[in-house]
Design a protein that fits this description.
globular; mainly alpha; 13 helices; MetI-like; MetI-like fold; ABC-type sugar transport system, permease component
Length: about 300
């Protein structure tokens, strides 16, 4: 009995020492996460429930007033629609261009490493610099219209047309991330089992059948990741839109990030701007969860 009691006491003491040791090692991480993640998030939640200009020491609590105002604001619905169209275009083109480029780079051609480096250059290029270059290229007297003039085509004022400006912003975003998406797909392509393709070849499958029936389904997890990454990039977009169009013309490219910036930093309505940020976060999480459910259901089938 004494021996059993001693063993139980020693086990409890050992467990207590483990808990203390774990707490000591976890404490720095908890303090850092609490101070630089949890506190700012909780503070932002509170700010979204107030009317605050960003400078006044007093934050007037108004509850859900900012959120109620959002759903009565036509500018918010315009910005939301612009963001949805922008995100849809970026997601579709990111998958298509990334996969196509990865297939080309995976082909047995000479100098593949050089081509991979060239296509990755837009990723490491400054967003501000890239947007400025595109802005000059799309100017009425810029490079694009100069090329069109050689074929006797009078190019439009690209950035002063609502839809053309939005298309230009979509293409710029896709171009900026095409190298990253291609590398993701290329990594996934090179990890696919060769035995599956060998079995398909023995069954007489053509190249297109292999691509459609084997490659695309096996790449669905990576496609899901690329779509989520493109979606998050689109909803977080600010720098490219700000430098290329400034949100214009007439709000045609004013994505949610632009509207949040304008209301918070230009108009001094930080409570309203923070509410827009949390609505954006909720939309991204909602769409991601739906995509995750759909992708999981397809995987089970």
């Amino acid at each position: 009995m004494k021996k059993r009691h001693f063993l139980k006491s020693a086990h409890r003491h050992y467990q207590k020492d483990q808990v203390i040791c774990a707490a000591v090692f976890l404490l720095p991480a908890v303090l850092i996460i609490g101070g630089f993640v949890l506190y700012p998030v909780l503070s932002a939640v509170y700010i979204s429930l107030t009317s605050w200009d960003g400078f006044s020491p007093e934050k007037k609590f108004i509850g859900l007033g900012n959120y109620a105002r959002l759903f009565q604001d036509p500018e918010f619905f315009n910005s939301l629609m612009v963001t949805i169209i922008y995100a849809a275009g970026v997601c579709v083109l990111s998958v298509l261009t990334g996969l196509l480029l990865a297939l080309l780079l995976d082909a047995p051609i000479r100098g593949r490493s050089i081509y991979r480096s060239i296509y990755f250059l837009p990723v490491v290029t400054s967003s501000v610099a890239a947007a400025i270059v595109w802005k000059y290229m799309l100017d009425p007297s810029g490079f694009v219209n100069s090329v069109l003039m050689k074929f006797n085509i009078h190019g439009p004022d690209w950035l002063q047309n609502r839809w053309l400006a939005l298309i230009a912003l979509i293409l710029l975003t896709v171009w900026k991330n095409i190298g990253f998406n291609a590398i993701l797909y290329l990594t996934a392509l090179q990890a696919l089992p060769k035995s599956v393709y060998e079995a398909a070849a023995l069954d007489g499958a053509t190249g297109w059948q292999k691509l459609w029936k084997i490659t695309f389904p096996l790449l669905s997890p990576m496609t899901f990741f690329v779509v989520v990454q493109a979606l998050v990039t689109s909803f977080q977009s600010f720098d490219l839109a700000y430098m290329l169009t400034g949100g214009g013309p007439r709000g045609g490219t004013e994505v949610l990030g632009m509207m949040m910036y304008r209301d918070a930093f230009k108009l001094g309505d930080f409570g309203y701007g923070t509410a827009i940020a949390f609505i954006t976060l909720a939309l991204v999480l909602g769409v991601t969860m739906i995509q995750w459910k759909v992708s999981g259901a397809q995987g089970e089938e």
